[in-house]
Amino acid sequence: AFFWLVSLLLSSLIWFIAVKASDPRDEPLQKGLLIFGVMFSVLLQEAFRFLYYKLLRKAIEGLVALSEDGCSPISIQQMAYVAGVGFGLMSGAFSMINLLADALGPGTVGIHGDSQLYFLTSAFMTMVLIFLHTFWGILFFHGCEHRRWWEITAVVVMHLAVSGSTFCNPLYVGSLVPSYLLMAAAAAWAYLLSGGSAQNLRRFLLCKS
Amino acid sequence: MTELSAHLPQFQHGQLTENFPDNHLSNTNDNSERRRHDNSERRRNDNPESETNGQPQNNIQQVVEQDEEEDEELTLKYGAKHVIMLFVPVTLCMVVVVATIKSVSFYTRKDGQLIYTPFTEETETVGQRALNSILNAAIMISVIIVMTILLVVLYKYRCYKVIHGWLIISSLLLLFFFSFIYLGEVFKTYNVAMDYITVALMIWNFGVVGMICIHWKGPLRLQQAYLIMISALMALVFIKYLPEWTAWLILAVISVYDLVAVLCPKGPLRMLVETAQERNETLFPALIYSSTMVWLVNMAEEDPEAQRKASKNSAYDKQAPASQTQNEDAEADDGGFSQEWQQQRDNRIGPIESTPESRAAVQALPSNSQTSEDPEERGVKLGLGDFIFYSVLVGKASATASGDWNTTLACFVAILIGLCLTLLLLAIFKKALPALPISITFGLVFYFATDNLVQPFMDQLAFHQFYI
After folding, report:
1. Total of domains in chain B
2. Considering the entire predicted model, what is its pTM?
3. Residue B292 and residue B312: Cα distance in Å, rounded?
4. Which residues of A touch B69 (CB under 8 A)?
């Protein structure tokens, strides 16, 4: 969570500087700058995820060195999951919390002609992002562990794609649907990487031993 | 373990109270205790070779072989556990403060200033405002320094009665007067009708139970809850009565002061800690938050002073059954000492008992019935002043930030990470450390950065419904 926050900080710093250096009245330029800010932020988030991976790697090595039986009390997969959840929660919290606070107050959604589904779609989008961050965490760390660079690039590309798809908001079908599809794909992939399989799933669902 | 100095005599409605010298000391107490605790872990390496009383033979061998690793591993394990044990109360305190700030408007209304910040911040020019806030901060800090030195002097010259009286008056004021005001304001906010008799009963019960729990004995959870509540109350008072720039400046300066006071050889807090160590005494019971209390009330016959002190502290008598199972006299005594004093006593005594304990915990040797205390139950201590200043930071962030919840959340995460780092450093350095600097620095950086940089960005993103 902290690392995500720092990445957000840096990316907003960049954006802020860009905005201050540009003309505030130029609408398309501002929007363009915002898009640039978003993309940059995505890249920075992934960079910070990588830094976090490095940090956790060092921590695991330390724990292994100190433990009695040579294995660390927490595995890298667990750390990947936790890292993903942390990223997701922070990102979700920052996206949603002001919205929720405003939602408690009086008002009408979309009274000025904007979409009436604003709150709903924000909620769904945030949810899908949180899940995605969790899965990306697992995929990313797995890729780093096994040196599979294509997994890492896949995560980055997916993140960019999801963020990019939000650019067609308020045409929600363009952003929500692809995001959910990507989430399903990422979920399946992460599940397989974590050792699950169709058999496991069937056994679990049918409550077999 | 961690220190914070927060001296803040308050002048409110004509009453002068000093509330914080205690925090200093309790923090120093923490430091000494935590230091001893940590040192005791390290000393375990040395003790088995030197101490032969009370050590079962098999323990000694295993101790010799694996002490170093165990020591560090235990430190890390307990370090992690301690971090969690501290997260919860800090979070609770912050949650209470933020919830109050958001709902009860009394604490965000400007109703004047404390006598300790005489310069107003409503001036015509920015320069004037800056100057005023610097002066305010300077006055406040000098008051704090004077109070700390006064307390150290009182402690050095053994004027315990004065200190105890001071503490009792402060906690009386907090528990009765401030909570009365708080309750009144909460009722006003929610438009709850209430009569004086009920209020009197409630406040009386709350206050008396609080005094008993904090200064004498009581269930651990209740004591922790009371400490959190009074920290929150104090933080709310600060948030209300300190003007903006002054508050930020004071936070910054106080973390610098904390750093200096704890780490410099001539710092008042350090002197306090050392004096307490020399005298093998516990410092003030009322102003340290402790996550566990493992006081043995009836042990340690050899140390009447210890016994007296122990009985004064709130006891959660987990160790009483352990004392009966101890079959060797020497161990029984050691057990008494370590359990009572591991938090406040010498290093040399603690490790004696910590070894069998750690054996029990780490190696699960069934023969170790001498002590049933888990090393995990050696709690961590954090001074209440730390709680108060963390909550002041987060509360101010939620009260006055344009980014509102984003800023609050960012400051919260920053403070917790700072606390983690401080505890990590503590585990590494094993000496008294100030709790404020790292957390407050992170908190301040994140507050200003989030408020000014992230807020416009997130606003724009939310407006267009872009997601990052």
Report:
1. 1
2. 0.73
3. 16
4. 66, 68
